[in-house]
Amino acid sequence: MTGLESILSQIAGDGQQEAEALLSEARAKAGEISQKAQEEAKEKAAAVIKEGERRAQDIRNRAQSAAELEKRNQILVFKQELIREAVAAARESLENAPDGEYFETLLSLYVRFAQEGRGEMRLCKRDLARLPDDFLARMRKAVPKAEVTISPQPYEIGSGFLLVYGGVDINCTFDAIFEDAYDALRDAAGRLLFPAA
Q: In terms of DSSP bridges, do strands 160-165 and 146-150 run parallel, antiparallel, or are they unpaired?
């Protein structure tokens, strides 16, 4: 082999070694980059999974809260309905009480709302028909300073009565009494029906 061939062979061998060294270095760097990319991908995947789990838990928590709220609302609606029924039953019991009890209730209302001076009690047709003979005397005895008469004319009212003093009407019908006292009756019925609530 000639000197030139020897030099060329030497250069070719050195170039081959250098190329293999560069290729080996490039493979090592590619491996590092690949490893780093895989680690970053794993970290990102773990972060995405963790965020997904957090969101899923938030959704479960909101759904559970909403379900509990709906349950409480349904219980409240049910309780309110039971209370309305209890108040309605109390009113019906008063309206349909035997005559003696019914007119004792009316007398109690009269004592509570009667005023001094001339006035008139107005009753419905049903109550006028069953009015006890001594009711006016009992009214005058219960509130001596009230000069109230009972109108013989029936009025279009439900149970209870109206007291009329000149231009002032005092509505003592059961409709008005129960409406005015509804909140207190509702609370009392609620305590009786649901003592632990």
A: unpaired
Residues 6+ apart with CB under 8 A from 123: 131, 150, 151, 154, 155, 157, 161
DSSP state of 116: S
114 in helix, strand or coil?
Answer: coil
Separation of alpha carbons 45 and 43, rounded Å: 5
More confident residue, 133 or 90: 133
Token pair belonging to 100 = 């003696």
- What's the rounded Cα separation, in Å, for the pair 106 and 186? 22
Bridge partners (DSSP) of residue 161 are 172
Q: Look at the pTM and tell me if it is higher than 0.70.
A: no
pLDDT tens readout for residues 58-83: 888 888 888 888 887 787 777 777 77
Enumerate residues 6+ apart whose C-beta is below 8 A from 11. Answer: none
The rounded distance, in Å, linking the Cα atoms of 85 and 126 is 25
- Between 12-26, 33-47, 146-160, the lowest mean confidence (pLDDT) is in 12-26
Q: Which two tokens stand for residue 27?
A: 């493979």
